[in-house]
Every structure is written in structure tokens, then in C-alpha cells.
Amino acid sequence: MKKSHKDTIPASGKALLWMFLNDEDYRQIVGDFEESYRYRVTTLGRAKAVFWFWFLLFRSLPGFAWDSIYWRGTMINNYFKIALRVIRKQKLFSFLNIVGLAVSLTCSFLIFLHVKDELSYETNFPKADRLYRVQVNSKYGSNFRNWAASAPALGPMLQEFFPEIESAARLSPLGREIFSYQLANGSTKRFEENNGFLADPSVFPSFDLKFLSGDPQTALSEPSTVVLTSTVATKYFADDNPIGKILMNESHKEPLQVTGVIQDFPRNSHLRIDYLVSMPTLLTYTGFPEEIFNHRTWKCMYTYVLLTPHQNTESFDAKSPEFMKDFLSERPGVIEELRLQPIRQIHLHSKLEGDFGANSDIAYVYIFIGTALLLLLIAAVNFVNLSTAQSFKRMKEIGIRKVVGARKGQVIKQYLGESFLLTILSVGLTLLLLNFILPFYSQVSGKTIFFKDVFRAENVLFLLLLIGFLTLLAGLYPAFFASGFQPVNSLKSVRDPRSSTNRLRKGLVVFQFVISIFMIFCTLTIYRQLVFFHNQDLGFDKDKLIALRLYGDFQENVTQNMDALKNEILRNSGVSHVALTSGLPGTPFSNERLTPVGVEDKNTLPMLRFIRVDENFIETLGLEIVQGRNFDKISDQKSAYIISESVAAALNLEQPLGVECRSDVHGDVEPIVGVIKDFHFDSLHNPIEPLVLEYRPSWTGYMLVKVQGKNLTEPIQFLRQKFQEIAPGYLFSYLFVDDVFNRNYENENRGYDLFKVFSIIALLVACLGLFGLTVYAAETRIKEIGIRKVLGASAPSITLLLSREFVRWVLLANIVAWPASYLVMNKWLENFAFRVHIQVWTFLISTALVLLSALVTVSYQAVRAAFSNPVDSLHYE
Amino acid sequence: MILLSRSEEIVLLAIWKLKDNAYGVTIREKVSADTGHEWSFGAIYKPLKTLAHRGYVEKSSSEPFAERGGRSKYMYRLTQSGEEALKEIRKIYKAIWTEDIKTAFD
Questions:
Q1: CATH assignment of B6-105?
Q2: Contacts B24 to A, Cβ<8 Å
Q3: Does pLDDT of A755 surpass 60?
């Protein structure tokens, strides 16, 4: 019988049939098809026969499919029944499994929500993939400073030079400003606005900002015009039409005409925009001449470019050096490079000078995903351990199934079905838990998530994927394990049931302890770093320091009559110092250069941090003067500098006192009158930078008030009252400097909060599994314990016997956990210029904590077994 | 009383008619010839399984055949209860298809 390949039906058809039919029916049907097919090949020819085959096959499929579903359904029904019986019979084990899985699932789901949100930044802008922020890397001396901000002239010139750029939009941040609106009845609505920008009109098409009223073409073309988001518009104008109304900017004493209302800016963006003011208003706000828009190095704006469709940054990168050569031709010595930063990456990747506050970090996204996976693994390990332990009890069931004809595949399916059912039950419990937890979660995370949001398509998909993943992860090993039982052995049940999987179970428990120790160690180290943040001596005293925002007329009033006002305020016994400053510690100070007279090439000089202060600043913050003197109102009338020690080093000044220096901002030449000790005016993430204090009270924006005594509300009330007296209508807004400072550690705080909770949960879930295993161990060794007791073993010695092994596991886990956690935490600590050192006792505490939890878990069962009456355990033999 | 679906009934009759040569290919051809429609394997497979499950037919496999790609034929044969079922169907038909209906439709 010669077999010709041409005579057989197509393999793809066979494969299709195989999917729908069981083995026997497959053989039968393929045989039938084959026979008919060959007959048709001889009568009709091959081409027609093939066509006939496929036609018949597709007409047959519905019948096969229906049949396969029907018969499989019957079998699944049986598996389902058995699974329910098993769950009901093994109440404790099922409970441990379901609770462990549900807790892990809940945590993973919350992490999923968080990660999803972190990754969703800027996705609300339809053109986000084409939008870039221009990053400027400037070379100062030997090092680069990478800026998120860029010069006013850059945007328009880029657009002219590069055909790749569809449009360029500049945004210039405005800081805290006070707006007021005079109502028809004479009363005034006054609010502080923090999120405003001067903007080019091209920002609207680039970010696809939708106008609710007003004309996008003309809205921001005239000076002193403003576009509000709908929330802000409603705040001032309620239901009135805002278009054409006049808002008073009290900070700059400048009336602004409302020319448009846009939809609220999306929350998940690195930009926060409440209102936009037309770009020409910069001149009326600051009094700068028109030429300021041609400035090529002053980084006061953010330039966003929209590339033409299907354009990558390559051609921009290739041409930009040429462009910069031309752009900076009048500024010899200035070396700058341009980069395009995709806006989708800003939230998680950007760490540039002039970023809007601290961005989040992709590392935390990975850490969260890792944590979720570890939690799921721990729960899955419980499942594997408990169900392999139980399989021995079910050896007879599986033996019988196999004897009456179950194939290996069917036993596997049955076991997978059981783990599926348990997973489904724990998902049910998860939903119940989420119902309770989501309100709290929304509070902590600041994102409003309702229970009904859980059922959004992507969340449901995630849950389904998790169910599938867990079913396989938890079910596969026990399934293959149990299906491998030889019916002869399992029915005789002669083998010692403890020997064969014991090693794996031990390994898995050790693995769980590794994770627990690791997470507790991480939590402890993060906690120590946070404590360090709060307790580290910053070189100044940030406690009980209140900052009051000064603006408009009132600011002039204050700076001119500071002495009188200061005396008034100091009369209150709760206030010890009052000072003026341009910047608050913990927020970025300005970047400027100081050129000692006589130095020719100022481009080689480093960038320094600058703030403007009055003569009370140094004693209000408690800074230490190491050389020279403090500012003095009379002798420093023409202004002067006090520098930090590192400035002296950076400028190579051996004798800094009396050196005359020129500022590149206002060009005045002033002497250095003092040197202060370096102090942490910025977060401990960063090394201490050189700082220059300039005596210039008229350039300040905050009044710092140092409060003494326990009561903080009383001095604040006093200040509020005082300010109302001097300037009626002044919007009193205050900040605590330590709050401002600690805002830099938000990422670390949030990470700690999560890790704290999750490491406890990981430990609890691991202990659930351990508890189950101890119950099992006590059960299988019940006779051994009975005999030992009859022979005279004491209760303590039996407790020891049962718990000794678990202690060994925990100790074994340390071998892996310690080096792993050391490496990870060492890497994490490298984020901080000032950090704690990893210490041995942190390891010991983590181990002790895990050991203690394990012992408590184990000892309950061990003690119960030890005190049981041997008669009960031995009598039925 | 035994009630079979129409397709089961047709397939059962075909098997009876085919005597010792009833297997997938022949049954399909017979049924298609009897009814004048082309039946797919899927269409006879379902009634065949139900019939076998209810015990009206029994299945046995033959020696492998070359023209079936080296696979066995699965032969079907009516059982005692299968024959009884046919008899009962016949009885019911006789009862419900009265003479006046026949003359009206033929």
C-alpha cells in the first residue's frame, strides 16, 4: 500500500478537527473524511475534491462543536461537583487558600490601578506622541546642567528653522498669584491661583484644548488677556458669561480681560494649568522691554514642540548642533545642546533643572509591579503546598478515577478546574474587600475611584488575566503531581506520603520567607531613610517657620515699612523673628552667575544658587556666620553679598571678604561681606550647592515668621488680624516651611506607606500557608506523637519536635534574603546624596520578626498536638 | 414511549437499511440519497453519538483500511432496543398519519 501525499486530506483540516473532537471520534471522523476524499479525488479531480472537503468540513463544524461542548459540559459538571465537595470537606485548607489569594489579589489590583494611572500621563492629549519638550543642556565650566526650561527666543526660531516642527508653543510659569473679581453688588471674590502660565496661542492646537467659549485664534493674541479653565471660571463668575469680564491680578496690579474658557486640563499631566495669560502680558507684568523675547540664554520658559506626523527626533538631533551654532553666535563661550524630551516620558523619567516639582519615578513603577508579583507568588505557593499535601489524602480518589478509565489529561483538567474554582471564589472575596477598601484608597492616593470603576473593560481584563495566571501558577504543579500517581500504588497507599514532595514544599516555604524577610528589610530601610530626612541637621531650623506670601501694593508697603511692621509683629510674644526672602528652602532657588571683578571669561564660572533676603534672614533661619558679618541696613544700602563656604571654593576665592562681584542678572557690582556655613536649602536627594544671599529686600516675595512656644494657631491668628489692619482685602495665605521642605520626599513617603502595608500582608499570607502546613504535619504525624507520648515524651519536647523544622527554614531563608535585600536597598539609597548606611541590626530585626511570626503560627498547632491525649490518637488501631 | 429527533430517526433507519455496511461514509451517503439533501459529517455525527449513548446502536471498529489513511472503520449496528425503537416509531406514524392526511398531501 503506497501512500501518496496527494491522497490525504489537508493537515490544517485535520488540526481543526482535532480541536473539536476527542481521540476516538477524531480517528473515526478523519477516517470517514479520508475515505470520501479519496473517492472524490478519483472521480472529480484533486482541485474539486479539496474544495469539496473544505466545504463539507465547515458545514460539519457546528455539529462537532455543539457535541463537544455538550459532552465536555457533562464532565465539567462532574469536576465542578467534586471540586465543591473537596472545598467543603477541607474547610480549613480552602479557607486559607481563598483568604490568601483574595488578599494578594486585592493588593495586586490596587497596585494595578496605581500603575495604570502612572502610565496614563499625557494620554489625554491626542497628539501626545508627537509632542516634545525642548531640553537644553548647558555647559558651565566642566559640567552640564540639564534644563527643562529654555529661552524666550528659542521657540519661534526653532519653528522657523526646522520644517519637522509643525508648531512650537511657549509656556512661562507665573507662580502664586492673587486674582479678584468685583461683583456688581460691590463685593469682591478673591482667590489665590497657583497654576498659571503665560502662553502662546499655539498651545491650544498642540494640546488639543477645547474651547467652551471664546475664539482660539485670537484668545491670547492681545496683551492682558486671559483664558480660564471652566472650574476657575465658575469660581469667579458662577453662571455669568465670563467672556469680556475683567479679572484683577492683584499680584501685578494688572487688569486681565477674559477672552476664553477651556475645558479643565487633564489631571494626569505633568502640567497643571488653571489659566493662561497671553504672552505679551509678560512686558506689562515685569516692565521688561520688548527685546526680552529675543533673549537667547535666559531660561524662563518651557518650549513645547509638535513634530509633523510620522517624524522621529533623528533629523532634529542631526540638525540641532548647526542651529545652536547660529542661535548662540552672539554669545561666544556659551555651550548648549538641544534634546527633545517626549512629553509621555516626563512624568516618570524627567529629572531636570526647572521641572515642575518632583516627578514620579519609573523605578517606583517597577517596584510596585514587583511587589504585586511577589504577593501573588506567595499566595500561589500556599496553594501549591496545601494542595500537594492534600493530594495524598485524595490518592484513592485519583486511583479509582484512573482505574475506571480517566486519562492523565482528565485528572490534570480536574485539578486545574479546582484551582480555577478557588481562584474564582477568591476573586469574589476580592471584590467584596475592594468595596470596603476603595474609599480609603481614594483618600490616600488622591484619586477618586468608585467601586463601579472596578468593572471597566481594562480592569475586568486584568482580573481575568490574573485568574488565568493564578489558576495555572497554582494548579499546574499539583495537577501534574496528582495525575502522575500510579493507580496500583495510590490504591495500596503504601508509600510514606511525606517523603516525595517534601523537598519542594520546604523549598517553597523557604522562598516565602525570603520574600517576607526581603520586604520587611526594605520597609525598615526606607523607614530609616525617611527618619533620616526628618531628623538630619539641615544647618538651619525649619520648624515653626511660617511663610507668608506678599504681593502687589502690600508687598511694596511691607518692604518699605519693614521696620515698623517688624516691631509690630515682634510685640507678640509668640513670634521671635521676622525676615524677608525671595525663595523658600526646599523649593528650587534661581540659577545665576557671580563674576568677581577682574575675571574676564565668565563662561568658565560655575552656576550658583541665589536668593534675595533682608538683614534678618540669617538669624531667622539660624544660619552660622563663619567669616565677616551679617547684612546691615545702613552700611549695605547699596546691597551686598553673603556667600556660603562652597561658593568661595567654587570661585577660587581665598580671601572672599571685600571682593567686589558682578551679578549677571542686574549687572550691579557689590562686595562680599560675609561667609556662612553650607546648609541644606534643598532636599537631601541632592548634594549641597553653593549659595549666594544678596541683600535686596525689594526683590523678595515671602515674609518668614519664626514662631515660638507650643501654640501655633495663636500667632497665626495674630498675623492674620495684623495684616487685615494694614491692608484690608489682603488674601492671607501661609505655608509652613517644613511642609514645603518635606514635599520633596513625597515619592519616598508614598513608597514607604505602600511597602509597610504590603510587607505585613506578605508575612500574613505566608503565615497562613505555614499554618496550613503545620496542621497537615500534625495530622500526618498524629500516631508518631501519640507513641512518643506513651513512651514518655514531654509536651515541650513534642512542641519543639514540630516547630524545630520551621525555625530551620526561616534561618535558611536568610542566606538568600540578606544579600538580595542588601543589593536592592543599596541601589535605592544611591538615589540620595545624603543617606543612611545599611546596618546589621536591620537584618536581624527582619529575621527576628519573621521568625517570631512563624513560631507563633506553628506553636498553636504544635502545642495542641503536644497536649493531645495519646489515647485519642492511638485508640482506633 | 420512545421519541427520537427527526435526524436521529433518519440516521437510525439508514443504519438498519445498510445492514452490515453501516459506517460514517455509507451512512452519510445513504441519508443524503434518502433525503435529497447533502448531509455533512457533523450532521450525522451528533445523532450517531446520541443513538449510541442511548443504546439504540452499537459501535465496533474493524481492521485498518488503506483508503482511510490506515484507519479503522467504525461500524454501526442496530441493537435490540434500536429495532424496537423503529417499530414504535412506525406504530406512532401509523397512528398519527391517518388516511385523510395522506390523501390531502400526496
A1: 1.10.10.10
A2: 28-29, 31-32
A3: yes
Q: Which residues contact A5 (CB under 8 A, 6 or more apart)?
A: none
Rg over alpha carbons for chain B, rounded to the nearest Å, is 15
Residues facing A670 on adjacent strands: A661
First to last CA, chain B: 28
The residue written with cell numbers 473539536 in the block is A20
Could you report the predicted ipTM of this complex, rounded to two decimals? 0.82
Q: Using a CB–CB cutoff of 8 Å, tell me whether A27 touches chain B.
A: yes
Helix (H) or strand (E) holding A494: none
Task: Give the residue from B30, B39, B67 with the most A CB atoms within 10 Å of its CB, the best one to mutate.
Answer: B67
pLDDT recorded at residue A493: 56
Say which amino acid occupies B63. Answer: E
Whether residues A62 and B42 touch (CB distance < 8 A) is answered with yes
**What does the alpha-carbon distance between residue A437 and residue A57 come to, in Å, rounded to a whole number?**
53
Cβ neighbours of B73 in A, within 8 Å: 31
Nearest to A296 by CA among A327, A260, A251: A327
Burial code of A755-787, b = ≥16 C-beta within 10 A, e = fewer?
bbebbbbbbbbbbbbbbbbbbbbbeebbeebbe
Cα A304 to Cα A312: distance, rounded to the nearest angstrom: 15
Q: pLDDT for A194-207, tens place per residue?
A: 889 999 999 999 99
Lowest mean per-residue pLDDT among A181-185, A306-310, A622-626:
A181-185
Phi, psi of A599 (to 5 degrees): -80, 125
Kindly list the domain boundaries of chain B, sorted by start residue.
6-105
What per-residue confidence (pLDDT) applies to A821? 92
pLDDT digits (tens, 9 = 90+) for A101-137: 999 999 998 888 888 888 989 999 999 999 999 999 9
Chain A: residue whose CA lies nearest to B40: A60
* Nearest alpha-carbon partner for A334 in A343, A324, A322, A344: A324
Decide: helix, strand or coil at residue A255: strand
Q: Grid coordinates in use for A35?
A: 475515505
With an 8 Å Cβ cutoff, are A31 and B42 in contact? no
- For A586, phi and psi rounded to 5 degrees? 100, -15
Listed in sequence order, the DSSP H helices in B1-106 are 6-18, 24-35, 41-54, 80-96, 99-105
Residue of B nearest to A2 (CA): B66
A385-408: average pLDDT = 80
Q: Which residues does chain B have with pLDDT short of 70?
A: 1-2, 106
Taking the Cβ of residue A68 and every Cβ of chain B, the question of whether any pair is shorter than 8 Å is answered with no
* Closest by Cβ to B40, choosing from A63, A67, A71: A63
**What is the interface size between A and B, counted as CB pairs within 8 Å?**
69
Q: Is A183:A189 a contact under the CB 8 Å cutoff? A: yes
Does A1 have pLDDT greater than 50? no
Touching check for A23 and chain B: CB below 8 Å? no
Taking CB atoms and an 8 Å limit, are B67 and A56 in contact across chains? no
Give the pLDDT confidence of A219-236 residue by residue, as tens digits.
Answer: 898 899 999 999 999 999
Cα separation, A107 vs B58, whole angstroms: 56
Task: Report which of B77, B24, B103 is spatially closest to residue A27, judged by C-alpha positions.
Answer: B24
> Which of A28, A60, A66 shows the shortest C-beta gap to B40?
A60
Phi, psi of A288 (to 5 degrees): -70, 155
Residue A508 to residues A504, A514, A772, A809, A871: CA-CA distances in angstroms? 6, 10, 14, 10, 35
> Which residues does B contribute to its contact with A (CB < 8 Å)?
23-25, 28, 40-43, 45-46, 49, 65-74
A20 lies within 8 A of chain B by CB: no
Mean pLDDT value of segment A471-491: 79
Nearest to A29 among B45, B66, B67 (CB): B45
Any B CB within 8 A of A783 CB: no
